[in-house]
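Input structure tokens:
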């Protein structure tokens, strides 16, 4: 096994799937051409650009810029394509075949985005930097969060540009950009184009986050390894919350001495609280010394 950067790694497993795809501006006339024999029927004509815009006041310039970038893809008739938008840089890419979705058979032929690819592209255009790389869960749990909302909060406190997520704490599978007034822009599924939809609050709607590029409250550290689980309490037997699919930048609020953990030949009783995940992780899985520098002890 590879020697850790400063020590340690995790061992649990988790499959990470990209979730949303997007295509650079294409002409609506091209979107309406007759498909070749054997190709699926074209999706309905995209909604007009006028239906996709911030529908409420109060959003930041960053959020409004992200809405504008996502809405450009609605106006362009950009396809959803599974895995699209996850290239080395933000922007549309050709998709992949999702083994669980027969409708994705033509995704490798379509330049576009999946759900998280669209979010990545939209905020990169607005911020001028690739601030939300990764799949839906990584984007929802980003350390660049200004405010978090649970499903119980509903839509009342949300502003245009907030990111809506669906799934569970262990696996978030979809993410979209809120417009206001119960509407959102999303890359939903194979065989459809980037669209404006009603927010689906039922089922497994998980909550929302508001993105900021301002100062981060807390210290940032990097996990390493793959499948590193966070826990509901600083204990090995505690409920699992979320597993990092790979090295991830996390915000640490505080740390405490709790149950000792032994992994990769190291033993440590220090655990860190990650406010974005509302969960704990043993310091063995964080790059740095056993007791993290400049991080306060938890009350």
């Amino acid at each position: 096994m590879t020697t850790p950067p400063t020590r340690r790694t995790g061992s649990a497993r988790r499959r990470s799937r990209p979730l949303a795809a997007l295509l650079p501006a294409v002409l609506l006339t091209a979107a309406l051409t007759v498909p070749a024999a054997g190709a699926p029927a074209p999706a309905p004509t995209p909604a007009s650009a006028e239906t996709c815009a911030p529908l409420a006041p109060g959003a930041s310039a960053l959020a409004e810029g992200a809405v504008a970038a996502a809405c450009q893809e609605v106006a362009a008739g950009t396809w959803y394509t599974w895995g699209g938008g996850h290239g080395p840089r933000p922007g549309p890419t050709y998709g992949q075949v999702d083994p669980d979705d027969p409708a994705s058979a033509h995704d490798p032929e379509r330049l576009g985005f999946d759900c998280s690819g669209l979010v990545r592209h939209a905020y990169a255009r607005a911020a001028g930097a690739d601030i939300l790389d990764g799949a839906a869960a990584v984007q929802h749990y980003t350390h660049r969060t200004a405010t978090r909302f649970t499903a119980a909060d509903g839509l009342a406190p949300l502003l245009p540009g907030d990111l809506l997520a669906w799934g569970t704490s262990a696996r978030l599978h979809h993410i979209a950009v809120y417009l206001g007034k119960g509407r959102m822009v999303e890359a939903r599924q194979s065989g459809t184009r980037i669209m404006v939809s009603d927010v689906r609050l039922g089922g497994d709607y998980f909550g929302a986050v508001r993105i900021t590029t301002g100062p981060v409250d807390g210290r940032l550290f990097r996990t390493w390894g793959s499948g590193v689980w966070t826990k509901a309490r600083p204990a090995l037997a505690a409920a699992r919350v979320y597993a990092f699919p790979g090295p991830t930048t996390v915000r640490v609020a505080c740390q405490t001495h709790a149950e000792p953990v032994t992994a990769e030949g190291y033993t440590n009783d220090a655990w860190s609280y990650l406010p974005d995940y509302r969960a704990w992780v043993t310091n063995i899985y964080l790059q740095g010394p056993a007791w993290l520098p400049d991080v306060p002890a938890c009350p």
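The mean pLDDT is 86. The chain has two domains: 20-211, 219-285.
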